[in-house]
Amino acid sequence: MESPIYIAVEGPIGVGKTTLVERLADRLSARIVLESFEDNPFLMQFYEDPKRWAFSAQIFFLMSRFKQQQELAQSDLFQPNLLSDYHLLKDRIFAQLTLADEELALYERVYRSLATQILRPDVVIYLSAPLESLLARIALRGRDFEVGIDPVYLADLSKAYQDFFARYQETPLMRIDNEHLDYASDTPEAHAIVDQIVQRVRELARGQLATNRDIYR
């Protein structure tokens, strides 16, 4: 039997993380762990007044995600592989973008004390798409707290993700430009895309690829 694989899918708001996780789950017989953003009582206030509520929202996310990450270590004999639509590292990306200096310094102290205690992914998949695509997808899914999202904030967040993953070396990394990739539909083309991603994920997890940076368009 192959060793279990833990895959984390990351990227900016609206890029299609959860959709990809759900499409990969059956192929990999994987247990899904999804981000529980609805439970954050400060999220709506953050979108209305980011400067006032950024620290409260960020600390709540960090602690709730850390608790969920700790639970990933619990084994499942029937679904040993793990798929998540986020990784704890995203907290740092958001924090550096939204927090004032003193808040960020305090946040960093808490983050560093927790980051060493979480399960490390075998492969991280980084999804990217242009701002126009992100805004269109956010509007299409119609979440109340995202309706008034500031395009400037979303553009800054996308840039922060790009900069972060340009330097990322912690795990094997697959980069996917999914502006025109349709892996959500039930078509032969969509199934072929998912099959290709699954193959590359397995190769990266086994260390069989010479490079850890593959870009699909």
Describe this protein's structure.
The protein has 217 residues and is of the alpha/beta class. The protein has one domain (6-216): P-loop containing nucleotide triphosphate hydrolases (Rossmann fold), CATH 3.40.50.300. The chain has helices at residues 17-28, 43-48, 50-71, 89-98, 101-115, 131-141, 151-167, 188-206, and strands at 6-10, 30-33, 81-84, 123-128, 173-177, 215-216. Strands 2-3-1-4-5-6 form a six-stranded parallel β-sheet, with helices on both faces. Helix 3 packs antiparallel against helix 4 (89-98) and helix 4 (89-98) runs antiparallel to helix 5 (101-115).
Head-to-tail CA distance between termini: 32 Å
Helix content: 40-55%
CATH architecture: 3-Layer(aba) Sandwich
| Largest sheet entry | 6 strands, parallel
Number of beta-strand segments = 6
The global form is globular
Number of domains: 1
User: Rg to the nearest angstrom?
Assistant: 17 Å
**CATH hierarchy, class:** Alpha Beta
If you average the pLDDT, what whole number results?
Answer: 86
- State the CATH superfamily name: P-loop containing nucleotide triphosphate hydrolases
Unreliable stretches (pLDDT < 50, length at least 5) are none
CATH fold field value:
Rossmann fold
Strand order of the largest sheet: 2-3-1-4-5-6
Count of discrete alpha- or pi-helical segments spanning 4 or more residues: 8
Helix/strand/pairing category: alpha/beta
Spell the H/E element sequence: EHEHHEHHEHHEHE
